[in-house]
Specification:
Layout lengths: L17 H19 L3 H5 L9 E6 L5 H13 L2 E4 L13 H9 L3 E8 L4 H15 L7 E7 L5 H14 L6 E8 L5 H4 L1 H4 L5 E7 L8 H9 L3 E5 L2 H5 L7 E5 L7 H6 L1 H7 L15 E3 L23 H20 L23 E4 L20 E7 L5 H15 L6 E6 L7 E8 L6 H10 L4 E6 L2 E8 L4 E3 L24 E6 L2 E4 L5 E2 L7
Helix pairs in contact: 1-13, 3-13, 4-5, 6-13
The protein binds phosphoric acid mono(formamide)ester.
The site of phosphoric acid mono(formamide)ester has 10 residues, from helix 3.
């Protein structure tokens, strides 16, 4: 049987289905038991055991736990582990990430473990790696493991966190009540929890952070959409005052240095609100356990060190679990483990594109054109794009008409103006007339739909509308030089200089998710 894990990338936690994660946890549990019992025969079953199998660590941001646990996991597997010395690499000579990783792929390495500031980097590397493998006739495309990308996600931390919570709950997946405390804005480990906690059937999350460090809207909405019960508190003190306190607390490190002078002036106050104190010990429920992805600040630890030697200390076992989870993850991606998986695997191929957002409207070919007679001269043959930005402000419609002409290269003879909608007289709309233009092909129609959802495209011949199409919002917006993710940390942002083409997926009528960093934008925000 094929191994569904072999060669897979893990760029966000949702790249593995729930069944795949449960399988990974089961294997980690078996591994932990074999280690505890020193069962050497059993341990052999988990190893890749191939000194030619190449794994590369590329850490462009500092790390102890993630980097070293992967290094120890690779040692367990007896494979070839290389580390790119990023401080002395040609990344510092403005080499692109694509060129850097293509070079390493040429040295027969199959798994890359990557930490960087650039959000969505592994998604981009995965795409780029597939193209490299095709060009170079490699048997297998390289796999990329996201070891933390900016304030986006930290999926392998999420795996070890979930495993640790399951252990603490004696493998009961019915429900979890967890408090997430600290810098929820920058903390990528808590962002991964928006999908990660779905491993539990009923999820109650208490978010404890001053508003300045609150959970970003995208992840908050994701948690709500995933059916989590959410409560929000601005400090540990206000949380302690409520009578329903979680037994599981997950702290994250404040990253106040990223937030400018105004916040830095208030750092003591903000830190105080998310730091546990001795006098609170009597107010938390019995058998409470604290977790932390670590590191904690030696001068300002939000979990004070006096708690190290108390039963609240769950973070040391959590950290140690990191190596075990990563042993199994490497074994799965290498294809050594996973043949007996019988659950539902994550779909790794995209659904084929459909064009149902382009609808043909019946036309009466006997009727001559009257409705486009508002211009200098009625159009007798050509193209009319009507109902552009209907209902928007006149200045916005005019701006967008100029953008459409530029992006679609609708230069030459013709005109465009703003008119009152006949159907909705209180609304304005934009119209573009292009005499002598021929009927647009599918590629052009897709572009017009992306630029002017809701518009109609009329093909006119001899004063008659011979074809009329209503274009709705397409599910994806891509393949335009004039779109850009607004997140400057996103790998596709122009300031990164990586030439990664922006791509957006529609998630609601007016929200579009960046393919790489997953930040959401309104329709207007994605256009330059
Ligand atoms: N938890 C975690 O990512 O720690 P490091 O930054 O030390 O890798």
């Amino acid at each position: 049987m094929d191994n569904p894990f072999k060669g897979r990338s893990l760029t966000v936690i949702d790249d593995f289905s729930l069944d795949e994660r449960l399988y990974l946890f089961e294997k980690t549990r078996e591994l932990k038991k074999a280690i505890t019992e020193n069962n050497l025969d059993e341990l052999e079953k988990f190893r890749i055991n191939n000194s030619d199998f190449g794994i590369y660590e590329v850490f462009i941001e500092d790390s102890t736990r993630t980097k070293e646990s992967f290094k120890n996991a690779a040692a367990f597997h007896r494979v070839k582990l290389n580390t790119l010395e990023t401080n002395y690499s040609s990344i510092n000579k403005s080499e692109s990430f694509a060129d850097t990783f293509n070079t390493l792929c040429g040295y027969d390495n199959l798994i890359y473990i990557v930490r960087s500031q650039q959000e969505g980097l592994c998604r981009w590397l995965e795409e780029n790696g597939k193209l490299y493998a095709q060009r170079n006739k490699m048997k297998q495309a390289p796999a990329f493991i996201n070891a933390g990308d900016g304030k986006h996600e930290h999926p392998t931390q999420e795996l070890l966190d979930e495993f640790t919570f399951l252990e603490q709950k004696n493998w009961d997946r019915e429900s979890i009540h967890i408090a997430l405390v600290g810098d929820l804005y920058h903390g990528r480990t808590v962002h991964s929890k928006a999908d990660g906690l779905l491993i539990f059937k009923k999820v109650k999350v208490d978010l404890i952070a001053p508003p300045e460090l609150g959970m970003p809207e995208y992840y908050l909405n994701k948690m709500k959409d995933n059916g989590f019960e959410i409560r929000i508190f601005d400090s540990i003190d206000s949380y302690i005052d409520n009578n329903d306190i979680a037994q599981l607390w997950y702290f994250t490190r404040p990253q106040l240095e990223r937030m400018g002078d105004a916040i830095l002036k208030r750092q003591d106050e903000l830190r105080y609100r998310i730091t546990f104190r001795k006098e609170l010990m009597d107010k938390i429920p019995e058998r409470t356990t604290f977790y932390h992805p670590l590191p904690r600040h030696k001068l300002h630890p939000t979990i004070p060190t006096f708690l190290d030697a108390t039963p609240l200390n769950g973070w040391e076992n959590q950290s140690a679990n990191g190596k075990l989870i990563r042993i199994i993850l490497l074994g799965l991606i290498a294809g050594t483990i996973g043949h007996d998986f019988t659950g539902i695997a994550k779909k790794t191929t995209e659904e084929p594109e459909t064009h149902d957002y382009i609808q043909e409207v019946p036309v009466d070919e006997n009727k001559t054109v009257k409705e486009y007679a508002e211009g200098v001269k009625p159009i007798s043959s050509g193209l009319v794009i009507d109902h552009i930005c209907r209902g928007e402000k006149e200045e916005d419609i005019r701006d967008h008409l100029a953008r459409m002409i530029r992006v679609l290269a609708l230069y030459g003879k013709g005109g465009e103006w703003i008119s009152r909608s006949r159907e909705y007289p209180d609304k304005m709309k934009g119209i573009i007339f292009r005499p002598e233009y021929s009927a647009p092909g599918i590629k052009k129609l897709k572009q017009i739909a992306a630029l002017a959802p809701g518009c109609t495209v009329n093909v006119i011949r001899e004063k008659k509308v011979v074809k009329k199409l209503k274009l709705n919002m397409p599910p994806k917006i891509y393949n335009f030089p004039n779109i850009c993710c607004k997140n400057t940390d996103c790998i596709s942002h122009s300031s990164q200089g990586e030439n990664v083409p922006a791509e957006f997926k529609r998630i609601t009528d007016d929200r579009f998710k960046c393919k790489y960093c997953e930040n959401t934008h309104s329709f207007k925000e994605i256009w330059i």
